[in-house]
Write a structure and sequence with these properties.
There is one protein chain. By secondary structure, this protein is mainly alpha-helical. The protein has 2 domains: 3-146, no CATH class; 164-301, Intergrase catalytic core (hpI Integrase, Chain A, Orthogonal Bundle). The chain has 13 helices and 3 strands; from the N terminus they run ααααααααααβββααα. A 3-stranded antiparallel sheet has the order 1-2-3, with no helix packed on it. α5 (74-91) crosses α7. The termini are far apart. InterPro entries: CB (IPR044068), DNA_brk_join_enz (IPR011010), Integrase-like_cat_sf (IPR013762), Integrase_catalytic (IPR002104), Tyrosine_recombinase_XerCD (IPR050090). One of its GO terms (biological process) is DNA integration. Residues 157-310 form the Tyr recombinase domain.
């Protein structure tokens, strides 16, 4: 049976008695197809087939390649897939027809409706996708060199922050009589006092904390380890969470989901904790609503001049 027949609703209904409507099973099937495509077990036709989204299958294969060969995080894998899927409408269904002019024009068109930061991420995703296609012999090599560079200057914009009094209101908004509130209180303190990234908090493990020395090991984007002092209130909040609120589990990460299955928090969940805390604190005019808001607020407060006593 062909892949197109297997993926069609009629074939599924014939084999199982009814169409598969459970999204997780569909996603697993797509990942499996991507695995088969990468290893050459099945091939994808460039002809349009009814009921078959060749773009989607190609994206699944690309994401499988990223996981296996590029070593990037799952969140980045999913983001690259979304970005490339958006660009495929302009590139067309057949990679063998791609050329430098088409690749460049697609990015220039996207620049008219995307922010600079979003466009920069999109060019990174497309560059990886074209390299993947070239390694599979699906397009001419070197097309990634045709992607225009997106200029982005450091310190070209002011940081987005809120005042220290508002930060304190955000941290105090947690209901520390509940397990989720105890967890969120510790998370917000780490962001507000140490200026950590959301990924730093979500990946934090017990072994990263030296309780005797009162320090915390943080691995930044470049995976370079640095030791930060652990403030007293932050350390106490983490201990309260470990003793009173953390669900039992074998995960190395400190912060887990409150609802089973108790997996480690994702970076996006950390940002959601900040967003909900802003709502509880009644701060409606925040310039942004993610974890970076507290990071930038911490950095801004550290640069403020100390009060002068006369």
């Amino acid at each position: 049976m062909s892949f197109a027949a297997l993926r069609s609703t009629d074939a599924v209904a014939l084999a199982a008695g009814k169409p598969i409507v459970c999204r997780p099973y569909v996603n697993r099937a797509r990942r499996f197809v991507g695995f088969l495509v990468e290893y050459g077990t099945v091939t994808l036709s460039t002809h349009e087939l009814p009921g078959v989204d060749l773009h989607e299958v190609q994206i699944v294969a690309f994401q499988t390649w990223l996981r296996r060969h590029r070593g990037i995080s799952e969140r980045t894998v999913r983001r690259h897939g979304r970005m490339v899927m958006r660009l495929l409408a302009g590139l067309g269904p057949d990679p063998k027809l791609y050329d430098a002019r088409l690749v460049r024009q697609v990015i220039l068109d996207e620049a008219q409706r995307s922010s600079r930061a979003n466009l920069k991420t999109m060019t990174m995703a497309l560059r990886g996708y074209l390299k993947y296609l070239a390694t599979q012999g699906l397009c001419q090599p070197g097309l990634d060199q045709a992607i225009p560079t997106v200029p982005q200057w450091r310190l070209s914009a002011l940081p987005l922050y809120i005042f220290t009094a508002d930060v304190d209101r955000v941290v105090a908004s947690c209901d520390v009589t509940t397990p989720m509130g105890i967890r969120d209180h510790a998370v917000l303190l780490l962001l507000a006092r140490l200026g950590l990234r959301a990924g730093d908090v979500s990946s934090m493990c017990l072994e990263d904390i030296d309780w005797r020395e009162g320090t915390l090991c943080v691995r930044g984007k470049g995976r370079r380890e640095i030791r930060l002092p652990l403030p007293q209130d932050v350390g106490e909040a983490i201990i309260d969470y470990l003793r009173e609120a953390r669900p039992p589990g074998a995960c190395e990460q400190i912060f887990l989901r409150a609802v089973a299955p108790h997996r480690p928090l994702a970076s996006a969940t950390v940002s959601s904790i900040v967003k909900l805390a802003l709502v509880r604190a009644g701060i409606d005019n925040a310039p942004s609503r993610g974890a970076n808001l507290l990071r930038h607020s911490a950095a801004t407060s550290m640069l403020e001049p100390a009060p002068r006593w006369i």
